[in-house]
Amino acid sequence: MPTVNVEVMNLALASWMREVDPEGKKIYLLLVDGAGWHTSHHLVIPPNVLLHPLPSYTPELQPVESTWPLLRECVANRLFKRIDALTRKLIARCRHLINHPHLVKARTAWNWIVQAENRLYSS
């Protein structure tokens, strides 16, 4: 998607809930940063989702921050004459990461996340 806003976030939340819990029988805690589309009064939060804001200036609590190098490494120090060539390269890298989740997990499986995940699946 070329843009992110409240409408897109509403679509993402609704789609996510249809995928992970179509019957609405579980409670989900979703960590969000201070982006405007995460804090808007127009955000439609499903009844079984609780949003919890991350503290400001805490990239160590945001797993995605440590994954950027995985994406950047395929384009670093390279010249792309056309934007579509850059786009194709980034799409190929994203697909590679999707097919090799262990690469992402190695960057994001911090102790506090693994412990939370273990507690979630053990209950």
What features would you describe in this structure?
- The chain is mainly alpha-helical and 123 residues long.
- It has 2 domains: 54 residues, no CATH class; 66 residues, no CATH class.
- 50% of the residues lie in helices and 8% in strands.
- The chain contains 6 helices and 2 strands, in the order αβαβαααα.
- A two-stranded parallel ribbon has the order 1-2.
- It is globular.
- The protein starts with 5 loop residues before the first helix and ends with a helix.
- The mean pLDDT is 87.
Mean pLDDT: 87
Strand content: 5-15%
**What structural category do the secondary elements indicate?**
mainly alpha
Q: Supply Rg.
A: 17 Å
SSE sequence, one letter per element: HEHEHHHH
The helix count comes to: 6
Label the overall shape.
globular
Helix content: 40-55%
Low-pLDDT ranges: none
